[in-house]
Write a structure and sequence with these properties.
Length: 398
């Protein structure tokens, strides 16, 4: 509420201090009583303000008095023990001569005005007397100016390179993670990381709405799926089933090993504009690292045994690859009619790498409403929007 007040020149008040103390003693007490100022610290601030204002009002009040002759330089060389009695005697004589006197009314009025300006005092509400002053406090309705945030100190690492227990990271490391909605949604994938640039600049992106395929005779896909162990992973984007080596397909005399399969809801692919309840993507890779994906469309109907086996083995925590009991025969996921559409596309998730061989089965496979609802509770929507076909060749097995 109060702030210390100092004159413009820090040492200027020392000269009139002794002379003004007696004159302002009674006036200062009356002014403090009128302003409601109590306590040692506020009164001391008031005294300093009064003395400062007095020096500004009448700086030359004693300018006409003859200056006391300065002592000769030789006196400085005298021993201090001899100078002290003379100094004490001189002070005692001045003290005896000094008599308290009230300051002139005009000087007191100017003093009061200057002091009120210094302390931010205003006339008390409802008072007609200029002597009734009130010190204005802080306005409780005034908006608070937020302080600048303190810079976070870097977390210190221990001898083994690990962060100390009390070191708290203020910001997550790395760029924002990709998602299917919100700030990390498909429209923003390309801006999240430089390696995701193909998500917006690629010309062979997936998924697509499969239309006007060229009907040709193509060799069937040779599926080499056999019962094997498996593990289930909830990676935060979908449910993924990882498989050991031994499963694969052969397309155009090229062998692709099955790595994993995962689910999307709704289906990412469309057939002549038709959207399906879900789709399962079986991801394969050849020895050169090229990818081939078989897409099996899923629609509401009877229960699917492979899907149920995966749901039974769902992990309790995300990002934990959990081995499942028993074995899984992936061939039971395939439709009886194994004709397919094929085209060149990309991964449907970042980094959206192109050069992926896509084979979309024409006949969908059924799963029960209960099985569909289980996945829907985990991932109501995890499908990338349809991408432009951009004049790509689409073949349809006749």
């Amino acid at each position: 509420m109060y702030r210390p007040i100092f004159p413009r020149h820090p040492l200027a008040f020392l000269t009139p201090l002794a002379r003004a103390a007696g004159n302002c003693h009674h006036a200062l007490q009356r002014l403090a009583a009128r302003m409601g100022v109590t306590g040692l610290f506020p009164i001391s601030v008031l005294a300093i303000g009064a003395l400062a204002a007095l020096t500004m009002v009448a700086p030359d009040a004693h300018a006409n008095e003859p200056a006391s002759p300065s002592a000769p330089k030789e006196a400085k060389a005298e021993p201090k023990t001899e100078a002290r009695p003379a100094a004490k005697a001189e002070k005692s004589e001045k003290a005896e001569k000094a008599e308290p006197a009230d300051a002139p009314p005009e000087a007191m009025d100017r003093l009061r005005e200057k002091l009120a300006q210094r302390l931010g005092a205003v006339r008390a509400p409802g008072s007609k007397s200029p002597n009734d002053l009130q010190v204005a406090g802080k306005n409780p309705e005034a908006p608070l100016v937020p302080k600048p945030a303190a810079k976070a100190k870097p977390a210190r690492a221990g001898a083994d390179g690990a962060l100390e227990p009390h070191a708290v990271a203020l910001h997550p490391a790395g760029p924002a993670h990709w998602a299917y909605n919100g700030a990390g949604g498909p429209e923003a994938w390309a801006s999240l990381k430089p390696e995701f640039a193909a998500c917006s600049t690629g010309q062979r992106q997936s998924p697509i709405d499969i239309r006007d395929g060229i009907q040709v005779q193509m060799p069937a896909i040779q599926f080499d799926y056999k019962p094997s162990g498996f593990s289930v992973l909830d990676n935060g984007h979908t449910v993924q089933v990882n498989l050991p080596a031994g499963n694969g397909i052969t397309v155009n005399n090229r062998r692709y090993d099955l790595l994993q399969f995962h689910f999307h809801r709704p289906s990412e692919e469309r057939i002549n504009g038709k959207l399906f309840d879900m789709v399962v993507h079986l991801v394969h890779k050849d020895p050169e690292g090229k990818l081939a994906v078989v897409a099996v469309l899923l629609e509401r109907g009877s229960a699917q045994p492979v899907v149920q086996a995966v749901w039974n083995a769902l992990p309790l925590e995300k990002n934990e690859d959990t081995p499942a009991p028993g074995s899984l025969d992936v061939s039971q996921l395939l439709p009886k009619d194994q004709r397919f559409y094929t085209y060149m596309g990309s991964l449907t998730t970042p980094p959206c790498s192109e050069g992926v061989l896509w084979m979309v089965m024409k006949q969908p496979v059924q799963l029960s409403p209960e099985q569909l609802n289980i996945f829907s509770r985990m991932y109501p929507m995890n499908a990338r929007p349809i991408q432009p076909t951009a004049g790509r060749m689409i073949k349809e097995a006749s």
